[in-house]
Amino acid sequence: MSNGTQDASTDQGQTLPILQKVIDLSTKIQDLKKEHAILSDQVKLTTSSFPDPEVLNTLQLLSTEHELLMKKYIKESSERKQLYNEVIELKGNIRVFCRCRPLNQNEIANGCNSVIEYDSSLDNELQVVSSDSSRKHFKFDHVFRPEDNQEAVFAETKPIVTSVLDGFNVCIFAYGQTGTGKTFTMEGTTENRGVNYRTVEELFHKSEERAGIMRYELFVSMLEVYNEKIRDLLVDGSNQPAKKLEIKQAAEGTQEVPGLVEARVFGTEDVWELLKSGSRVRSVGSTSANEMSSRSHCLLRVTVKGENLINGQRTKSHLWLVDLAGSERVGRIEVEGERLKESQFINKSLSALGDVISALASKTAHVPYRNSKLTHMLQSSLGGDCKTLMFVQVSPSSLDLGETLCSLNFASRVRGIESGPARKQADHAELFKYKQMAEKYKHDEKETKKLQDTVQSLQLRLAAREHICRNLQEKVRDLENQLGEERKTRLKQETRAFTAASAPPSALSSLSLKQAAQKTVMEKKPPLAPSSKLRLPLRGLTNLLPPPPSPLPKQWESGSIASAYGKENIPKMTAGSTTTKNTRSLFQPRRISIAAVRPRPPPSSTASQALKPRRRVSIATLRPESNSHMSTPLHTSAPLHTSASSRFKNGSVAGRLSMVRDPRKARYSRLFSPLPELMKATGETTPIAVRSSKFMGSPPAIASSNLPRHHGVIALQRKTVVWSPLKLRSMKVNRRPSLLPSRSSTEI
Ligand SMILES: Nc1ncnc2c1ncn2[C@@H]1O[C@H](COP(=O)(O)OP(=O)(O)OP(=O)(O)O)[C@@H](O)[C@H]1O
């Protein structure tokens, strides 16, 4: 510098610009130094702040929080998706998946751009960029991009498909412009199998998984709607004219095609073969838009019959897999002749589908399902109780912008339809069976009710009868008591009569007469405790059993009789009978015993005459009358032996005795008149007293006892009596005043 200054001083004019430059550079250096200092300061600050542990901790905390929030977000968004799906299911909306195919070779060659854009931040949404750069947003249940393969598509479809195994009807259909990939999505290719094949494969897979709980049978049908005609694709119609198939409404309200082939399938290979053969038969043709354009709507129906092995519940559900013919602009695809006609039919049926969708979306009362075969066929799948999924297929090409917007608008409307929640489909045959069972149950219930009523009325009748029986028993007891008393009185009277008549001159004859009289009394009055044999059970009373045979009372044995009558009488008594047995039989009936009490017959009369039973005698002569002073045959003014002998001499005892009996007839008829209750109970028309008057012989001692001696009476008393107001009522109704005058003990 000093040299320079010296040079400058020596040659000032030349050195000045150089100096100026140096000064400038020096200034620049100074500035740079300052800047450097500043930057150095800054650098110092940054490096010194990092080691600060607080900052590091905060950073760590923030990063942890960020991770947590990310996890939460992912969880929340999956939950939201799930909830959304549930809401969709509850509302019964038709789900819509959008699939966009890639640009094909022709489109790329023609320099077509993609008009469809996707925003990664917005799930299941796409934007269509119009020629004026305006964007239209569409949202669907899922959006598949061109790079999404068949597997990805089926992964989303699977949950709906498998619900057919749970008994739900399912319908999946592909809609869109021609050449957008409907057939590719539904059928696929051998390398890229579509929804149809994968669905059936999944159904077999799931049914195997559930083999322990459920048993499934799968059937496949395939048909097409071509030019508004239904054709069975599983029937090879090359050799014979196609059978005309029509849609019929079944009793359950579902649409059926009678005569449609239903092939049972046992594995995926069977299905694949069927699908291939069906596709071969399907009507296809070449158009400018698609070399292999489908000219018909193809419908594949999988019928699943399920049986729950645990509770036996059966289901029958259908899965419809529909590949619609492509919507096309006739002018644009340049068709004519047969292709034009096909296109018109296709457009007409798709337009009918549009009308149905509009009616369903706006919830109008009338939905025009029958305007086309396609909508008629899918009636229960579009607005019914099934799960419906629609694939809207679109092309990304700018050339197809108009059709793409049309298809997406249509799909958005479909998505807005609320068809109501899906219902499980029970097997109708099974339902019919259950209906029949319910009817049978109702019928059985009615019968049971009738039987119950009958039982109730029988119980009432039984109770009434029991009441009648009790009344009769009481009456019988009264009668027995009464008769016992009468017998006592009679015995006394006869003893008195005997005493009065016991003044004959001869002691021997007196004694024999006395004995005879006593015997008469004893034998005319049978033991007061009659053997049960003497009491016949009352007919009509079911609880009276026939009595066991009882032995003869001892005094009735021939030995006793012998002692009572004297040995000389015995040969006469037994003369009429050949054996002892026969003699015994003579004494068995009470009335026959009268023969034994008769006084000795006159010598002229034969033994057979003496033993001849006079049946009426026992009745007429032995009945005592307690409260009357009517004389018995012994109680006459004539001496006893005279009276007796004269009576027996007459030989018409019955006639005479009937006269004696006459005055008492009224009383007897009163006593033994048919009791209305008993007659009613037994259904008898004959008075009981006429049939059986055995109670007349009851001994007073026993008769006065409260315990009934008749075994039938015991049986009646043992029977449990159930008291009820109804019974009391019936008692009141049946209670009739006794024909017998009520007697006090003193009166007796
Ligand atoms: N997602 C895709 N990825 C690859 N190729 C596709 C895709 N979608 C469609 N294609 C191809 O596009 C062509 C037309 O597809 P497809 O025949 O399935 O259309 P389409 O909608 O059924 O037509 P059309 O209504 O005329 O029957 C086919 O060659 C098919 O392989």
What is the secondary structure topology, with strand pairs?
Elements: H1 2-10, H2 12-49, H3 53-91, E1 95-100, H4 105-109, E2 116-117, E3 125-129, E4 135-139, E5 142-144, H5 150-162, E6 170-176, H6 182-186, H7 195-209, E7 214-226, E8 229-232, E9 248-249, E10 255-256, E11 263-265, H8 268-281, E12 284-285, E13 293-294, E14 297-308, E15 314-323, H9 330-333, H10 338-361, H11 373-377, H12 379-382, E16 387-394, H13 401-415, H14 428-500, H15 507-524, H16 558-565, H17 569-575, H18 580-587, H19 594-597, H20 607-611, H21 615-622, H22 640-650, H23 653-671, H24 676-682, H25 688-691, H26 700-704, H27 711-718, H28 725-734
Parallel strand pairs: 1-5, 1-16, 6-15, 6-16
Antiparallel strand pairs: 2-3, 3-4, 7-8, 7-11, 7-14, 9-10, 12-13, 14-15
Helix pairs in contact: 1-2, 5-7, 7-8, 14-15, 14-28, 21-23
Bound molecules: adenosine-5'-triphosphate (ATP).
Adenosine-5'-triphosphate binds at residues 101-102, 176, 178-184, 290, 292-294, 325-326, 393.
